[in-house]
Design goal:
The complex is a heterodimer of chains A (about 260) and B (about 350). With about 260 residues, chain A is mainly alpha-helical. Helix content of chain A is about 80%, strand content about 0%. Chain A is built from 12 helices and no strands. The model of chain A has no long low-confidence stretch (mean pLDDT about 90). Helices cover about 35% and strands about 20% of the residues of chain B. Chain B has a 6-stranded mixed sheet with strand order 2-1-3-14-4-15. Chain B has a 5-stranded mixed sheet with strand order 9-6-10-5-11, sandwiched between helices. In chain B, strands 7-8-12-13 form a 4-stranded mixed sheet, with helices on one face. Chain B is globular and about 70 Å long. The termini of chain B are far apart. The model of chain B has no long low-confidence stretch (mean pLDDT about 90). Classes of the chains: A mainly alpha (about 260), B alpha/beta (about 350). The interface between A and B is medium-sized, with 25 and 28 residues.
């Protein structure tokens, strides 16, 4: 346990303002709604379905992210190659472009008449207004968070450990699975959680590619725009509450496995 | 410490130009308009601002019902409201009092312009060479045709296109025309109750397309334009003016169906759209089939009603009329208003 220290006042003021900035709006959404409205939202089948869709699409995006992101992260952590800095900037691009722009870019490639979307739709894989489009939008905007976290985690594993495993006859693949990943898993897991969290909160990119079926961010927007503040606040409060509980649990589990 | 100060200064440098660009002495004029007015009103904004350099027009475009909600529900500071359905202003603004003043949000409305519904498509749309004014409902009901609709709960094109299908069913005598198009497309069905001389369309409170629906639904009709351009949908219901502004292929519907010809008002009136809203009581409008008329008003809560008055004067000036003409969306002239005596004095002399 860390011993409590007296906080220097200048820093403490900034710190309190930061906490207030985050907590106050969240608390207001709860104060603006009632328990009965919350319960009503929870029993609203559209909301319930949307919650399930949002969480599962986020999980699917994260799984795909792990599948394609971990090899990329490992390469970036371990190898020197030409143009590496450029590739690293490319991976960060989704973090800096507006998400509505990301949605349009995705639509041009994965839309029904898009570069890949056209041929894929003939094979039965449709992205526009389909769950696949939601997963794709979430994946696009949140993948850099996983890759960067995993890259740092892999980089923190001493190369000598991998090297000695190689000397003992392990293949690079075995080294990755049996040595590096087990040592780096905490950072990777934390990256995956962050990616999932970012994915399920995505609005702009998903809305352009797959407005429907509606994930919670789109549903909140639609109810706010079309049915008003009173219709949107209960789902907003419900969703914030769910996310707080969910991330509380995930963080607790992640910490407790470690011990 | 020095570095930190440098960083903060650099941050300020980034902020400065943006604040310098927003001249503080200009009066803001906040305009909330129906999405279908986006093109003409953007042109008007430019012309009006160059003629009135002391005013900064800030326009936002939404589905017509959404426009109303920004005034009466979100209490935003809005100076001028323009909707694609005149009847929404009495329904949603006359009937609601501003809690700050105890007065209704509006007490007059100008019937600004008309329009008609048409079907937009592109040369690449499926069956583009086949579709015509006699077979459009059948083409739109084919399983491989994607159709863009705006949400009838939020947008005037949305409920108006439902009326078009009901009118077409009555006119052609094809008893399943409406259902053929909408059957299995929504998780809870949109129903047409045919009472012979009266047809009632019931829209469920939760309107969601099914997983493999042919229909792509968006909050406002102008949101369908991008879907049409990207090929996501083959056809979309739009206002005639919007289709011409964007240069799409245009299928004109017969006057008996397109809600744009005053000679057919009595026929249009046989259809009603009802929203089955149980929970969201704040909206409970009933949409009667009628001639499309756009409505214009200055909310009683407007912070700058004088600037809004000047905008309306400009709209009805020769320059303003021309902008609307050029956008295939002519004004109804002379200015027509339900309660001329309640208009701002500067506008009263303009009424016919």
């Amino acid at each position: 346990m860390m011993k409590e220290q007296k906080l220097p006042p200048g820093f403490a003021i900034g710190f309190s303002l930061v906490i207030l900035l985050i907590v106050l709006p969240l608390v207001m959404t709860f104060l603006s709604t009632s328990a009965s409205q919350l319960a009503l939202s929870l029993s609203d089948e559209q909301v319930a379905r949307s919650i399930g869709l949002t969480l599962s699409a986020g999980a699917a995006a994260t799984c795909i992210g792990l599948l394609i992101g971990l090899p990329a992260a490992y390469l970036l952590a371990r190898f020197k190659f030409r143009g590496k800095a450029i590739f690293e900037s490319i991976i960060d691009l989704p973090l800096v472009i507006p998400h509505s722009a990301a949605g349009i870019a995705l639509l041009l490639v994965f839309g029904r008449k898009g570069l890949l979307g056209g041929p894929l739709s003939r094979l039965g894989l449709v992205f526009s207004d389909r769950p696949a489009g939601i997963v794709l939008g979430m994946l696009f905007v949140s993948l850099p968070l996983l890759i960067n976290a995993a890259r740092d985690a892999f980089a923190a594993v001493a190369p000598e450990i991998e090297h000695s495993a190689r000397v003992d006859g392990a293949s690079p693949w075995e080294v990755f699975w049996k040595v590096t990943l087990p040592l780096a898993w905490r950072g990777v897991l934390s990256g995956a959680i962050t990616m999932w969290a970012r994915g399920i909160s995505e609005f702009g990119a998903v809305m352009i590619l797959a407005y429907s079926p509606k994930i919670i961010p789109v549903l909140i927007f639609e109810r706010f725009q079309g049915l008003g503040l009173a219709a949107a606040t209960p789902i907003t409060a419900l969703w914030i509450f769910l996310i707080l509980v969910l991330f509380g649990i995930v963080r607790y589990l992640a910490n407790s496995i470690d011990r | 410490m020095k570095r930190l100060i440098c960083l903060i200064l650099a941050g300020l440098l980034l902020i400065l130009p943006s604040s310098a660009c927003a001249p503080k002495e200009k009066t803001p004029l906040v305009v909330f308009a129906a999405g279908s007015l986006m093109k003409p009103f953007s042109d008007l904004e430019k012309a009006f601002e160059s003629a009135n350099p002391d005013i900064d027009v800030r326009a936002e475009y939404h589905g017509s019902i959404q426009v109303m909600r920004h005034v009466t529900d979100l209490h935003e500071d809005i100076d001028l409201v323009a909707t694609a359905d005149l009847s929404l202003i009495p329904q949603l603004m006359y009937a609601v009092n501003d809690p700050d003043t105890g007065k209704p949000y509006a007490d007059w409305a100008i019937a600004m312009a008309s329009n008609k519904l048409s079907i937009a498509y592109t040369p690449e749309s499926k069956y583009a060479s086949e579709i015509n004014a006699e077979n459009w409902w059948e083409v739109l009901s084919r399983p491989d045709v994607k159709v863009g609709l705006s949400d009838p709960r939020f947008d005037a094109v949305g409920y108006r296109m439902m009326m078009v299908f009901a009118l077409a069913q009555k006119e052609t005598g094809q008893a399943t025309l409406f259902d053929d198009f909408l059957r299995d497309q929504f998780q809870r069905p949109v129903r047409l109750i045919d009472l012979g001389d009266q047809q009632i369309i019931r829209i469920p409170e939760l309107l969601e397309t099914t997983a493999d629906s042919r229909i792509m639904m968006r909050g406002s009709s102008v949101a369908l334009i991008a879907l049409l351009q990207s090929g996501e949908v083959d056809y979309a219901f739009e206002y005639d003016s919007v289709i011409r502004q964007h240069g799409f292929e245009r299928l004109e519907l017969p006057d008996s169906l397109n809600l744009g010809n005053p000679d057919f008002e009595a026929d249009y009136a046989s259809v009603t759209v009802r929203l089955d809203f149980k929970r969201f009581k704040t909206v409970d409008p009933v949409f009667k089939g009628e001639l499309i008329r756009y409505g214009l008003t200055i909310p009683s809560s407007a912070p700058n009603p004088d600037a809004a008055t000047r905008f309306i004067q400009f709209l009805y000036s020769e320059a303003g009329q021309k902008v609307m003409q050029d956008n295939y969306h002519p004004l109804i002239l002379p200015m027509t208003v339900d309660h001329p005596e309640l208009l701002p004095p500067a506008l009263q002399e303009m009424t016919g």
